[in-house]
Amino acid sequence: MTAFRFHLLATDGAARLGRLETAHGPVDTPAFMPVGTAGTVKAMLPGSVAATGAQMVLGNTYHLMLRPGAERVARLGGLHRFMNWPGPILTDSGGFQVMSLAKLRKMDADGVTFQSHHDGSRHRLTPESSMEIQRLLDADITMAFDECTPFPATIDQAAASMRLSMRWALRSRESFVQRPGYGLFGINQGGVHPELRAESARALLDIGFDGYAVGGLAVGEGQEAMFTTLDATTPLLPADRPRYLMGVGRPSDIIGAVLRGIDMFDCVLPTRSGRTAQAFTRRGTVNLRNARHQDDPRPLEEGCPCPACRDHSRAYLHHLIRSEEILGPMLLTWHNIQAYQSLMRDLRAAIADTRVAAFAAEAAATEARGDIEPR
Asked: Given 3.20.20.105, 3.30.1050.10, 1.10.230.10, 3.40.50.620, which CATH number is that of 5-267?
């Protein structure tokens, strides 16, 4: 069986071109993973997701634990078979919900007790149970259980949160079942405080992981603070292991993070935005609800291979949105995932050709020009 391995193929400054080998296939990096929280990328068929060029998707331990339940998924052949996604899957450990569902949980040194947002039932997550749930789901990449530190937080609050996450990281490592093609990622925490990020990196390296994530960003700190934190953090992570920036982000966030040495990304923005009439294009975000599109026969984005752009006009997409037809969110979701995958493809090509800085400047200039106006 394939070993879990990361190949660093080329660099351009801090930007990296690589390939990740997993039990369910390879992933070319830099890579963006569409979010399939509950075992589905919303409004998309698995084959449609793959058609955009996506190689790996993300599932969520907390949500799949609540329903349909990890044991049921395991009995039905694992998450790949259950959702009909044959490629690699990464599962978030539930650590983000420790922050996002703070009103529905009680946390102690051992773990977290959640009150289900579905029916009020109580569920316990610890580093050990999170590892077991992710094993039952058959995730190619398991994430260590942590607390996603909220923003803003004082340095003392961020330090306490980070040190708890590092204790949980060790317990996650100790309870992870090693098998060929499967990997465990540790998660660097510490808020926007460089000294805490450095302490966290040292702790994670002492434990030893197959990959390293940067967590606790894109939670309200802003792009400048995020980039400053990455500048201080990414160089502390091993060059021979994949680096994953969790929950990021907008195209400009991704480009800036790639320039700082990040390899993997996930975010709900492309799918969520597609369901709210927002489309990502090279010239910025387009709101298909706006009346200026109602007589426009042109495609949403010239040259985009997705069916929204290939087969339909802006006028038709606007009509679908204003008529609240379900096809509208479906087409815009497909377009957005395609736009993100096209961005990653272009970034990989730019790194291979050692022109990633020029690509980033061109992308920023194109976005700054804004969307095309109706004739």
From this structure: 3.20.20.105
